[in-house]
Amino acid sequence: MPPTATNTSHPHDLPASGHELGFVRKYIFSLDHKVIGIQYILTGLLMALVGATLAALIRLQLGWPTQMWPLLATIFPKGYAGGVMAPEFYLAVVTMHGTIMVFFFMSYVLVSGFGNYLVPLQVGAKDMAFPLLNMLSYWIGALSALVLILSFFVEGGAAAAGWTAYPPLSAIAAAVPGSGAGQTIWLLSMALFIVSFTLSGLNIVATVFSVRAPGMSMWRLPLTVWSYFIASILGLLAFPALTAAAVMLLLDRHLGTSFFLPSGLVVSGRHLTNAGGSPLLWQHLFWFLGHPEVYVLILPALGIACDIIPAFTRKPIFGYRLSVWCLVAVGVLSMVVWGHHMFVSGMSPFTGEYFSIATMTITLPMTVFGINMLASLWGASIRMTVPMMYSCAVLALFGSGGLGGLYLGNATADMQLTDTYFVVGHFHMMIGGVTLMATFGGLHFWFPKMFGRMMNATLGKVHFWLTFTPFFIIFFMQHFLGIQGAPRRYYAFTAYDFLKEAQWQNVIISSCAMVLIASQSLFIVNFVWSLFRGPKAADNPWDATTLEWTTSSPPPHDNFGDVPTVHRWPYEYGLDAGGSDFADQRVPPEQAPVTA
Amino acid sequence: MQNRNRTSHFHSSLVALLFAVLGVGGVVYGSRIQMPGLASRHGAGIDSMLAYLLITTGFLFAVGYCALAYFIWTGARRERIGQRLASHRTEWLVSGLIGVMVGLIAEGGVLAIGMPVWSEYFDAKPPADAITIDVTAQQFLWNVRYPGPDGQFGRTAPQFMDDVENPVGLDRSDPAGRDDILTQNAITVPLGRAVRVRLHSKDVIHSFFLPNFRVKQDIVPGMTPEVVFFPTKSGSFELACAELCGLGHYRMRGFFDVVSEEEFARWLREQASPTGGR
Q1: CA nearest A281 in B: which residue?
Q2: pLDDT for the residue numbered A127
Q3: Exposed / middle / buried, residue B129 (Cβ in 10 Å: 0-12, 13-18, 19+)
Q4: Which chain B residue shows the shortest CA-CA distance from A279?
Q5: Which of A177, A338, B238, B242 could form a disulfide with A156 if both were Cys (CB 3.0 to 4.6 A apart)?
Q6: Is 80 exceeded by the pLDDT of residue A420?
Q7: How far is A451 from chain B (nearest CA, A)?
Q8: A410 interaction partners in chain B (CB closer than 8 Å)
């Protein structure tokens, strides 16, 4: 029995009673989930620009390690002292690139941004369950991003211990220059981020549970909503482990505790007095968060692709219920496989065997999910629009990334491949690529709903070719760099004979990276131009079935006016009834047959 | 209208072609890449694990990408959809079967090939004639210690550590340590004997990575992991650090030479005089 959406004392009843909100309350400190969602998306895209700039610096260094960069030396006088990138600056750039892209781009745009925008619309609610909490999560999140950026400007520079921040490197200021104030700020920013992300996840779970429109049973939720629902539960369960770890590491750094520091450490000739801690404890806590976190990012990407695909294949998604169960199964399994990041860390080889076998179990639900997506194209009548192209890219990268996972989840193969570029290639395909492609697909798909205007399709197609192709080449080649033994987080590959072959590959990779990064300007131009000059969008420009397409573009403040009543599942495409081949979720059974 | 259809067909075909080219091209590219030359006994097992994965995933990758290309190619030319909703039976059969198949490939690889190699490697008791070496990693070098003629390592403790005088912290009062042989960044072992490396770290996490020997072991401070392996080839190989340890991580290079017994004995003698056992 689905709950009704007659929550009485809702803040959105205010404007309906004739009260107009001012600019600040409407667009800045807004309670409207749509505005907050767009705020998250814009903040995340801005952070992505920072992250991409850092990626460009990384690739310049790795592609042409002996080159002088006088221009960069004027922009970063310390980082490029004498025209050459300093190793400590390189490590800070790598660390910040990872942190920004994982937490402040993907988590913001894909999870919090689209999550906020889509979940209430797709479940037929007026807003999130807790609008004030929602505003609070955004502003705490914005603060955490600001704090992180500030760390570039402190003594010693930004954190340089990698986004995984393994102690002792991240615990002892003398271990690496970024391990001074930069690391402290990094930890504070993480703690703030987790507060924000947890509040936002809580809100999504509550929204799915409590404010669904009448008739919107769980088995009528679009896969997007299902994916946000599972991802948010995962986030709620996993993130607190990192909060605890961040606080413990702060205590180790500043109050002399030894959670992560064993006895007998001698750093830069100085004997430390710590005793009794374990650096491995951090790795367990970090990956207890870290592994579910990749599913927090990737499930919404898959959900979004699953909702885009049927609109352009004009037939229902293949295996809807099976896919939902796969999401649930993956969610459960993702909580018990974190140790596959630690096969050679020194933990017991017996646990390595367990984590190997458990990790391989994930292959089953994930393959079923992937095949369901692929089979959704079976017998379809495909319209190759920009969102559809990106959804195909999601599927492609999910396939190649997933196959790469078979190597890394396998302890025996991982012994050779861990901490090499194979890992870098793999996770960029998954939490970098699947998510990036879904982000672009989602932005092109829902842009008309968000802003009431269409994006330019030709520009979008050119952008796709110049994004997906170099992206694929870069990270596919990195897998094979790893097979050749190239370790990750190396400032240069010049010191080793066995890495000589890496040079020509790095030149190709770096050149592709420059194309990839430069072509994002096409997206920016398209986004900004369409925002102001794009042709006006219809309410349902893609002939799609979910509830957000039944309201105006952009939707009014309270989304639907009258709360919609839901009569069917979200994939009623390919009907043979009358003029249209689809029925949105509100269409009653008398007007079109209900098929699932 | 017809024109627009033609351009859109052309474009969809290009997208289909893209995936087909990536699927086939990826396998061709991958098959041309070489791993570092193999030089250890257990490494053959790791290489067969990798070979199994490269073949199975290479096949699935190419088939998957070509299937995607095929669906796009034909789908874009279809005016009306074919079959609308598959029966639950078909769903379970198609996705379930392929899922189970890929799951079996993955799990089977772990159980049939991976685990035996893994447990053999970790269960290996060093044979009596194994050469034992003690490696203490620090930012950014490898302190290597041999027990010397008495076959006993001297006691060490952190409080004796001094970067210049006593990098591994030898206890001078322990007679067993007097003949210990110390080198930096240079390990030499005789061919035909197992090698047992006891690992320590003074400061941060390092990782003892011998690409040719398929050996990689993180060295977490406070823990003393050991690796045991059997070199099968003589020659000069490289030792790298595989866990981010700071500024010099990328150049924490060591040498691992596998030589004949005679050369090994001569090398040890050279190391022992004048600086050995400082």
Answers
A1: B220
A2: 95
A3: exposed
A4: B220
A5: A177
A6: yes
A7: 26
A8: 49, 53, 106, 109-110, 114
Quick check: B102 and A363 in contact, CB under 8 A? yes
From first to last of the 278 residues of chain B, give the pLDDT tens digit: 445 577 788 899 999 999 999 999 999 999 999 999 999 999 999 999 999 999 999 999 999 999 999 999 999 998 888 888 888 899 999 999 999 999 999 999 999 999 999 999 998 889 999 999 999 999 999 999 999 989 999 999 999 998 888 999 999 999 999 999 999 999 999 999 999 999 999 999 999 999 999 999 999 999 999 999 999 999 999 999 999 999 999 999 999 999 999 999 999 998 886 544 44
Following DSSP, what letter does each residue of B211-276 receive, concatenated? GGGTEEEEE-TT---EEEE-B-S-EEEEEEE-S--STTGGG--EEEEEE-HHHHHHHHHHHHTTTT
Residue B218's nearest CA partner among B209, B229, B207 is: B207
Rounded distance between C-alpha atoms, residue A344 and residue A30, angstroms: 48
CB contact under 8 A, B250 and A495: yes
SS3 A423: helix
pLDDT tens for each residue of A458-501? 999 999 999 999 999 999 999 999 999 999 999 999 999 999 99
Contacts of B22 (CB under 8 A, 6+ apart): A396, A472, A476, B65
Instruction: Please state the separation of Cα A468 from the chain's center in Å.
Output: 17
Please give the distance of CA A119 from its chain centroid, rounded to a whole number.
16
Nearest-CA distance A277 → chain B (Å): 8
Residue A324 has which token pair?
């939902």
Q: What is the pLDDT of residue A596?
A: 77
Share of chain A above pLDDT 70, in %: 96
CB contact under 8 A, A384 and B214: no
* DSSP string covering B16-62: HHHHHHHHHHHHHHHHT--PPPP-BHHHHHHHHHHHHHHHHHHHHHH
CA-based max dimension of chain A: 82
How many contacts does A have with B, using Cβ atoms within 8 A? 321
Reduce the DSSP state of residue A35 to 3 states and report it: helix
Q: What is the CA radius of gyration of chain A?
A: 24
Instruction: Give the CA distances from residue A547 to residues A114, A154, A561, A567, A574, in Å, rounded to whole numbers and listed in that order.
Output: 15, 48, 13, 11, 18
What is the distance between the alpha carbons of residues A431 and A291, in angstroms, rounded to a whole number? 11
Among B19, B34, B253, beta carbon nearest to A396: B19
Angle A223-A224-A228 from CA coordinates, rounded to 5°: 115
* Residues 100-159 in B contacting A (C-alpha not used; CB under 8 Å): 100, 102-103, 105-107, 109-111, 113-115, 117-119, 121-122, 138-139, 157-159
The tally of CA atoms less than 13 A away on the side-chain side of residue B49 is 32
The set of residues, in sequence order, having a beta carbon less than 8 Å from that of B211 and lying 6+ positions away, is A416, A485, A498, B36, B237, B238, B240
B-chain residues within 8 Å CB-CB of A493? 250
Report helix, strand or coil for B182: strand
Nearest neighbour of A497 by CB, restricted to B75, B85, B238: B238
Q: Are strands B195-201 and B131-138 parallel, antiparallel or unpaired?
A: parallel
Indicate the DSSP class of residue A342: -
pTM beyond 0.90? yes
> DSSP state, A54?
H
Contact assessment for residue A412 and residue B110, using Cβ atoms and an 8 Å cutoff: yes
Q: Is the ipTM of this complex over 0.90?
A: yes
pLDDT at A6 over 50: no
CB contact under 8 A, A412 and B115: yes
